Each structure stands twice: as structure tokens, then as C-alpha cells.
Amino acid sequence: xxxxxxxxxxxSGLHYVGIDENGMGPRLGPLVVTSVVARAHPExxxxxxxxxxxxxxxxxxxGDSKKLVAFDDSALGEAxxxxxxxRTSKAGGTALTxxxxxxxxxxxxxxxxxxxxxRSPCPSHHADLCxxxxxxxxxxxxxxxxxxxxxxxxxxxxxxxxxxxxVAIVCTRRLNDAVEAGLSRFDVDLHTMERLTLAxxxxxxxxxxxxxxxxxxxxxxxxxxxxxxxxxxTVLCEGRxxxxxxLPGVGRLAFVRDADDTHLIVGLASxxxxxxxxxxxxxxxxxxxxxxxxxxxxxxxxxxxxxxxIEATALVRKKLRVEAxxxxxxxxxxxxxxxxxxxxxxx
Length: 347
Prior knowledge:
Elements lengths: L14 E8 L8 E10 L5 H5 L14 H4 L6 H14 L14 H8 L4 H5 L8 H4 L10 H17 L1 E11 L1 H9 L4 H20 L3 E6 L20 E5 L3 E6 L3 E6 L2 H4 L1 H26 L14 H9 L1 H6 L4 H4 L6 H12 L2
Parallel strand pairs: 1-4, 4-7
Antiparallel strand pairs: 1-2, 2-3, 5-6, 6-7
Helix pairs in contact: 3-7, 3-11
């Protein structure tokens, strides 16, 4: 019989954070980790809404991004990102409130790192491989954004007020460098989730309850903490379904299996992250199409289309001196398997 999650002590705080990753396993493109911060009004049902599966019409627009959108149509995630940025300007969040908003503007508004920091590892001769924004346009209609704004109004009326959206983009080069330094991509994902949790704590000025998708199927996280490493923490539960920790001065951090499908606030983060990940991959494809016009629209995952894309662009990458560390997750594979095997053997 599967073990049950033990009864957890009640959470008395007001702030919830949904965190999820997109792009853990592809060959190409970045790992994207997204957080959505919300205030649950205690006199209403906000906490239950944040931590429950979306119901009714909301279930068609919030949930597991793998079920709701595809690579060639992630406009729903874009609509949510635009709606949250528009909405949070009213609550004092950093948002663009006037003038024509482009996808590049939107990313600059929500990314946890500055443009300069994101571009800092890029070789100067092909920085636009990932950051070229010429000709970009939004895919979601104004009506779709308006529908998401109405959903945000309804959520607030029911007790859950969305306050902030943040996105962390970990490019291929940073992933490869991390693995060469002895970290796995799962460590990178976990440490990025920790970083977003700490940022949310700073944003709201109070302890937060961060709900994250499970990282790599891990059950035990304390020994793998990065930004939270060295902090005092109490284990509330550790198991297949849920692993949860209490951290004084931070709040509570939970890793929940299938959280994007069962927790509204995590599903919302998943949808936005899916749009960011796909948008970044389209930039990579667009850059290559300026040199090889007929290359396919690749998702970057382990699929035949992405394999054809890699093969079709090999010569132009060699000619233009595109660094392998910036293009494919070449260091993630055997080296990562060795790291994980070594950790498992060590217990």
C-alpha cells in the first residue's frame, strides 16, 4: 500500500508561491523556472483555491501546461503572463503600464535577472542566437488576455490575489557549465526554485508557503539545497507524493508530485513558463533560419524534428563558430548519470 502524506501542521501565513519548471529534459534551449506569488485572504477561501485543482471554466485555462498547450501553440501561457503583468501594476508590482508592449519587453519585466546578466555568458559573435528579438509579435489575442484578466478578478473576489510573476531562465551554456562543475540539471532546477522562493519572501516581506513541482523524483531535498543550504530547516515530511520543509525566516517549502495539475497556483506558473521556454526556442530556430531558411520548427526535445534541426544546422554553426556549449546540452548525459549514480551509491 502506498504511504500516505502525514498530516501537516497548519500554515498561518497569507502568501503562497507556485513554482514549476519547463524544459528539464530537452537537447536544446533553456531551462525555465517560474514563480507566481499570491495573497490568500483569510476571511475568504484563498488558501484552498491556491492549493486545489482548478474547477469549472478555470480548469480549461489553468493547469498542467503539458495538457493545455503544445509547442506550436503556447499562446495561453503568453496571455496569462500579459494579464498578470497588467494586473500586478495595480498592486505595486514592477510592470509596464503604457506604450506598445513587445514579447521582449514582457520578458524583461518578469525575469528575475537583468538582461545584462542573462547575456553575460554569450560569445559576442552570436549573442543574438538566444536574444535576437527582431520581428517578434505576440500570439495571444487581446480577447484572450482580457479573459485571463477577468479570471484574475474572479480569483481575487474568491480570496486569492495574484501579486507577482517571476521567471528564471537558465541557458544551455549555464546548464552545461553547472554539470561540468559537478551539479546535475536537477540540482540547477532545485537551486533555482530556492532562489525564486527567497525572492518571493523579499517581495512580500513575510514568510511564504512555496509549492513546487517535484524535482527529478527526489524524496529528500535538505542535503541538496543550494541557496538555502546551511539554513536551519525542519523536515515536515519526505516521500514520493510530497516532501516539505519549514525554514525560519523563509516559511515553508513543499515539493509536490503532479503539483501543476493539482495546485492552481503551480499550474499558473507552469503555463507561463511553457510560453517562455517555447518563445526562447523560437528565437533559436529563427536565428538559424536566417542562414538555413528551410530548417524545421524544432521544440528542442528528444524528437525526430529536433534531430533533423540539429543535423541541418551543423555546417552553418561550424562556419559561424557557434560554441557547442551554447547550443546543445552536450555535457548533460553521461557526466550527469555518473554524478547521480555516485550520489545514489553514497546513500
